[in-house]
Give the backbone structure.
Amino acid sequence: MKWDTLDEEPCSLSRTVAVVGDRWTLLILRECFLRVRRFEGFQSSLQITRHLLSERLKKLVRFGILRRVPYSEAPKRYEYILTQKGLDLYPIIMAMVHWGDTHMGDERGRPLLHQHKTCGKEFDPVMVCSECGEPLHAKQVHVHAGPGRKEAVG
Amino acid sequence: MKWDTLDEEPCSLSRTVAVVGDRWTLLILRECFLRVRRFEGFQSSLQITRHLLSERLKKLVRFGILRRVPYSEAPKRYEYILTQKGLDLYPIIMAMVHWGDTHMGDERGRPLLHQHKTCGKEFDPVMVCSECGEPLHAKQVHVHAGPGRKEAVG
DNA sequence: AGGCTATAGTTCTAAAATAGAACTGTCAAA
DNA sequence: TTTGACAGTTCTATTTTAGAACTATAGCCT
């Protein structure tokens, strides 16, 4: 597999996997959503090697998930802020958290609880159909080729 | 990082990442949801090395995502079927597909379209609050420690 | 019987990625 | 002038992955 061109495959999952499809990147993004912004913050909470952290942050900046924003002029220091593109990864992270809560839990209960500020309640994320609003299940979905696939396949 | 115990961390994201947090596993799951079930099927559509495919399938079986079901007695042959635990990964996959559609698209248009059999329409997946039904956004969610975190941290 | 094909793996070596630790450079405060 | 905080970079050893070849069972064709 040519991982370096995975983001150009005629498959939206592949393209997403090209960006967030590794363990460290997903854990870094978790920290971003928990308001971590700085190199040392990521490093100490994740115990990731500084080398890899540096690499992954660069990659996330390159793909437009994070912005590298100066917060000190002398010495020059930067922090990493989620862009809108990055914020839009939230459903992926939440879907993963929810699956972990449901299927990988232990007797200690949930590690984190999520409260929806809008309605005030503790909630679970639910994926629904944009058209009818019903919860989605794999077996109720029919997949067919769109223009991007037809053009790629010929 | 001790990846071998990542599935026991007091963090549901880590636990999920332990299972599906690598590129091949996510691509294999995509194929599962596209009804691929057999070793040769995965191998030829993904161009994954046979060695790694074998490893990843074993891991998915070990974690209860796939079941290895015989479909021929002589010679003994097996196919890999999503369990309920595996089917429940659907929101993760769909969230990734949707993000790719939204942020990684090109001029050729979407590779795949999804039709909701229940309502008959082509749809996008939307993540909503289980309590009030409103679409979720990161900034409207307050995270706090649950019992599993408190017990782990002390 | 002998050879071809299909399927589902296993085994081997080379290349790439990751881990772990040490090092660099800037500046502020003591 | 020394220490410490911060944001990285560089180095070697280990682990993972890629790529190709090999094994094994059995049906089908001649």
